[in-house]
Amino acid sequence: MEGYGKSILSWVKNNVAKGIAIMTDLKGFDRMFRLDGKVALITGGSRGLGLHTATAFLHAGAKKVFITARKTEGAEGIDQAVEKLNRLDGVTGVAVGVPANVSNEAEIIRLVEHVKKTEGKLDILVANAGATWGSKFEDAPDHSSAKILDLNVRGVFLLAQKFAPMLEAAGTRQDPSRIIIVSSTAGSNVPHVGDNGTIMYSVSKAAAHHLARNLAVELGPRNITTNTVAPGFFPSKLAAGLIDKLGGTAELEEANPRKRLGEPEDIAGVMVYLCTPAGSYINGNDINVDGGQILSAGRHSKL
Ligand SMILES: NC(=O)c1ccc[n+]([C@@H]2O[C@H](COP(=O)([O-])OP(=O)(O)OC[C@H]3O[C@@H](n4cnc5c(N)ncnc54)[C@H](OP(=O)(O)O)[C@@H]3O)[C@@H](O)[C@H]2O)c1
């Protein structure tokens, strides 16, 4: 041990003599969780997890956040969301709404053209809009599978494909552009069969995971990283029906290792981490944001 201690000491002395820093020099640590100057686009940004993400990006300093959804008006439309986002305290960036159905190729192309024409660059693409279906296996109509796969898989592939040139133009080796696909823990386990089965939803989210892995390898060399964020239950319009059928919030909270459901800050934190310099070397990963619920899978399938 004495000899080992002496050799470390002489290594330190040598490096000091050569002027080599012994302390770690973390470049730009003050910007590690900042998005200053960045332009993001979030599909399904008018409510739920997409709106939480848009809010987080603006608080983290993003210059512009495009949000897209199908509805413009009403309590769930894009307009009210843009108004809320542009009233956030202490935020200098702006939110812009662009209506589009992102399961439709022509509308995705129109969306890309709009961003190109009005902003000219895109640093972050969050493919968050999603559709689900719950029923007995025998009762699931073919149109439910088509809707789910068109939005949750085909549309996400198209978004990545059509936005890739803009993302590539904005990315660098040290600071790549980011694609985040919002999948679900249902992409890794089989959470619901029986009366409230979500088989094709679960299949679509598994496909989203593997799409992200493929994109990570395809687009990584073009300075674009791709990851999935896989939420557990977060109260939202999409989740409300299933939460009720599974016994309600209190029962689901009790079954969760953290004794609660997801909250806006939980999504905000992981999105900011993945899209800021802190996450620049993360590529091709699925990050579960579920309080550890996936590890106790099966408790709700009895329903
Ligand atoms: N909440 C959860 O517990 C949970 C759990 C796991 C995964 N997720 C995933 O998280 C994502 C967001 O879900 P959420 O719970 O936040 O749902 P939500 O509150 O119902 O929001 C869905 C958003 O997507 C938009 N949208 C739906 N279809 C669209 C289309 N074809 N084109 C463009 N926008 C569309 C909706 O606006 P319009 O209706 O106006 O188009 C809305 O802005 C989904 O991918 C979902 O699968 C959610």
From TrEMBL:
Native source organism of the sequence: Glarea lozoyensis (strain ATCC 20868 / MF5171)
Domain of life of the organism encoding this protein: Eukaryota
Gene3D superfamilies referenced in this protein's UniProt entry, alphabetically: NAD(P)-binding Rossmann-like Domain (3.40.50.720)
Family assignment from sequence similarity: Belongs to the short-chain dehydrogenases/reductases (SDR) family.
GO biological process: abscisic acid biosynthetic process
Keywords: NADP, Oxidoreductase
A Pfam family hit: adh_short_C2
An example Gene Ontology molecular-function term: oxidoreductase activity
Protein name: NAD(P)-binding Rossmann-fold containing protein
